[in-house]
Amino acid sequence: MTARRLAGTDLAARIRAEVAERAAARRDAGRPARLVIVTATDDEASAWYVRSIASAAGKAGLDCDVADLGTAATADDISARLAGLSADPAVDGVMLQTPLPPGVVLADVSGAIEPAKDVDGANPVSLGRLAVGLPAYAPATAAAVVALLDEYAVGLAGARAVVVGRSAVVGKPLAHLLLDRDATVTVCHSRTRDLAEVTSTADVLVAAVGRTHLVTPEHVRDGAVVVDVGTNPTADGGLAGDVDPAVAEVAAALTPVPGGVGPVTTALLLKNVVD
Amino acid sequence: MTARRLAGTDLAARIRAEVAERAAARRDAGRPARLVIVTATDDEASAWYVRSIASAAGKAGLDCDVADLGTAATADDISARLAGLSADPAVDGVMLQTPLPPGVVLADVSGAIEPAKDVDGANPVSLGRLAVGLPAYAPATAAAVVALLDEYAVGLAGARAVVVGRSAVVGKPLAHLLLDRDATVTVCHSRTRDLAEVTSTADVLVAAVGRTHLVTPEHVRDGAVVVDVGTNPTADGGLAGDVDPAVAEVAAALTPVPGGVGPVTTALLLKNVVD
């Protein structure tokens, strides 16, 4: 068997078209939609991602500024900038790009992003609201996983979903989104014993650990749907997922990297800005 | 085999003794510790629970007021009172008792409790902070489960933990606490297919659904540790757990109801007030 390829490009294009329409209306009304991305890193992969968001924003007719605070920025510097942007009525969305400078912890500074402008769901308040079912922005990556599963009509109610990775930006919020859709949800991580035994119970398996090809055919039940959130840089400047391509011989469906979750993530981020 | 009985009474007594010592010091300093419990229900089980907290608080030397807003209270009434108590420097802890009047949703009003006084972890902000590892009060019941497991030296790192119940006051925060302790965590609920198959994978099984004796021996793997969070009223005025007593023949250890999680919950709630 060869897995169905769950590409995200068409869905992303549809979301971007909707965003462009709403951004144009905003612009016509004299009030363009504006996203500000705060960075404090010279990480290459991060810079590439920020450029791709800025480019997509530009194409969709959104204003997008990058506020680079430099690698010497302190937690106070970053918090102050995030608070200032949150208070600025000309800014619709504020995103803080990781990695942060050594010693600066995301959760300590992301609270300075006002939840209403927290388009990438970085503020712990957004996560808490999400967990209890209140309106809140989910991290765009987590939301993209669910949007992609919906796009291909993958049933979640009653399904066994296993998420590999417990980060505050993907694994944990995704667990809440999947629970909210009535899946039975398991979260695995680096300390999980016999990972393959656990992941093999999944109807829907999501890999979000950031380790190239960690998930192999032995981890996957015949006929499972596998979502690959990994975007690991390769030696030749490309991207590799967390899922070994050989999984396509076991899974019923698999999202590609690149071209799967990634484009949907960017599109949803822009959608949150115009929302 | 008969399961070891994981009683919570000794642990609760030790916590209460520590609380009493600190409460006495506060009183000597002319600044007694004060808990206010806000209620808006005439539910009998709830009234019983509130009385038991007030009694335990009194014995530990804490001031404890009950602010009964009546069953006609609106969400605005409740939020306003919670905000007022949060702003009152004479109040150390604010707890909102459920059930709430029809149409009032806990998550909509609990945000009015300032996180620093949110001794029962009801504010979604507390849950979000907990999820990302920031200091926050966990709901006392969820914290009590982990404290009881620690009391009996039940290893959590690498263990498979299954939580039955996805409520915002027990299941979800408990999942985060267990993840934080490096367990592999699964959350089940009413829509879970083949519940027994999932729960049978658990090294540590926690029942927190509020349905009398829902968990039977068929749900439990030989040698599992089972924690019963249920406090279901019985016809004769007693309490029944979510776990069928017959589970004691399969499990390695089981918390009793009453006398298991309950007393530890009350003790931790008081500890949060003096913290």
Characterise this structure.
- With 275 residues, chain A is of the alpha/beta class.
- Chain A contains nine helices and eleven strands.
- The first copy, chain A, has two domains: 29-118, Leucine Dehydrogenase, chain A, domain 1 (Rossmann fold); 139-261, NAD(P)-binding Rossmann-like Domain (Rossmann fold, 3-Layer(aba) Sandwich), CATH 3.40.50.
- Chain A has helices at residues 9-28, 44-59, 75-87, 106-109, 124-131, 140-151, 171-180, 195-199, 261-274; strands at residues 4-5, 34-39, 63-68, 93-96, 160-164, 184-188, 204-207, 225-228, 232-233, 239-240, 253-254.
- In chain A, the strands form three sheets. Chain A has a six-stranded parallel beta sheet with strand order 1-11-8-7-5-6. A three-stranded parallel beta sheet of chain A has the order 3-2-4, with helices on both faces. A two-stranded antiparallel sheet of chain A has the order 9-10.
- Chain A is globular, with a radius of gyration of 18 Å.
- The model of chain A has no long low-confidence stretch (mean pLDDT 96).
- Chain A binds chain B through residues 106-108, 123-129, 131-134, 157-160, 166, 168, 172, 175-176, 179, 182, 184-189, 191-193, 198, 201, and chain B through 106-108, 123-129, 131-134, 157-160, 166, 168, 172, 175-176, 179, 182, 184-189, 191-193, 198, 201.
- Strand 6 (184-188) of chain A pairs antiparallel with strand 6 (184-188) of chain B.
